[in-house]
Amino acid sequence: MLAGCGHYEKAVALFQAELEFTLFRPDVLSAVAPHKDAIDFMSVFWDSNSPKFGEDASPDWASWVQSGGDQEAASQFWYSKGISHDP
What we know:
single chain; mainly alpha; globular
């Protein structure tokens, strides 16, 4: 629908985010965080400068978390949720 309205970049980004969230969700989020928290943490990854699914040299979301990703933003997220986490 978005592509049909001329919003091609937004349509591609939405598809990228859907694939990333569905296929590459980090295990730690499945174990300790409710679905809403997983969505919130996805925004930390999505707002990072890391390449996204389908782009050259893109780590998947789980690999990004495993490697430490954006340490400061991730730490703030975990702290705000009251979860102790070390990637």
